[in-house]
Amino acid sequence: MSFKINQEIACCGGKLLKLSHQSSETKTAMDVNIYLPKQYYEEGITLIPVIYYLSGLTCSPQNATEKAFWQVQADKYGFAIVFPDTSPRGEKVPDDPEKGWDFGLAAGFYVDATQEPYKTNYRMFSYVHEELPKELDSYFNKENTKIDFLDNVAITGHSMGGFGALSGYLKYYNRYKSCSAFAPIANPTNVPWGIKALSGYLGSDKELWAQYDPCSLVSEVDNTRQSTILIHCGTKDPFLKDQLKPEQLQEAVKNTSWEGKIDLKIVEGFDHSYFFISTFVPEHAEFHAKNLGLI
Ligand SMILES: N[C@@H](CCC(=O)N[C@@H](CS)C(=O)NCC(=O)O)C(=O)O
């Protein structure tokens, strides 16, 4: 299956492409944005690495595309950045029966649902980590490989997407070269947003929940590369104490191969918004650029 280019927009030194495609995982059309940095359009550049950015609750691919200012950093270092959607969408896709904004549409939580009525469409884990990278690779690298969607890749995200980045990174430790997160839901099995989503999508089996919880995964995944995970959270984030709980991840890594490897920065005065995210995107970009071999 192929991508449709809905918009091609000149941005910084490169181009922003707003794409859509039919997903066999979610069985819906999915929107995805990609920024191709200026290096993509230059002669003689070797493979361009990719950062995947997973967005938070209520977001589409547009929020981060418009408000995180990754594009400037992508040009500075020479990586592409992919902004997937946060859930399947469409009239036939089941939503939260309570009509909340923390479950269902725009709240897919990057897991593969096992429960009715969600299991047919809510396959965001397999979509983001398997189907989307492969589809992008076959679409963009038809004639020769210019963008490395599959190997020299990093992952990051915000809030629900910070959780998605952490869990995806730990489950695909040998693929992602680095992981960072902005205000992630660090211990989803232990907070209201996570409990609602995991019970809705995965049912009551807490062992299945644990397979996605970064606080459980750190004791199962051996950090053989001695990698550091970079995390920023703001002190004025209204969700910090009850929903994000980054300190639980610090606790969980004790006596594991990740001990001392969570670089958690609690920054004074910042909230949960894109003003916070865009402030720290340059630091995350530099962190990933180093791990992707760009500097
Ligand atoms: N809609 C919620 C806020 C949800 C929220 O803060 N969502 C974050 C991710 S968890 C976000 O990125 N929102 C979109 C934006 O700021 O552009 C509320 O009214 O309190």
From TrEMBL:
Keywords: Cytoplasm, Hydrolase, Serine esterase
UniProt EC number: 3.1.2.12
Enzyme class: hydrolase
Keyword Lipid biosynthesis set for record: no
Major location category of this protein: cytoplasm
Active site residues of this protein: S159, D237, H272
GO annotation (BP), single: formaldehyde catabolic process
Nucleotide-binding is among the record's keywords: no
GO MF entries: carboxylic ester hydrolase activity; S-formylglutathione hydrolase activity
Protein's cellular compartments: Cytoplasm
Gene Ontology CC, one term: cytosol
Pfam assignment, any one: Esterase
Catalyzed reactions per annotation: S-formylglutathione + H2O = formate + glutathione + H(+)
Function: Serine hydrolase involved in the detoxification of formaldehyde.
UniProt-listed NCBIfam families: fghA_ester_D
Family per record: Belongs to the esterase D family.
Protein name as annotated: S-formylglutathione hydrolase
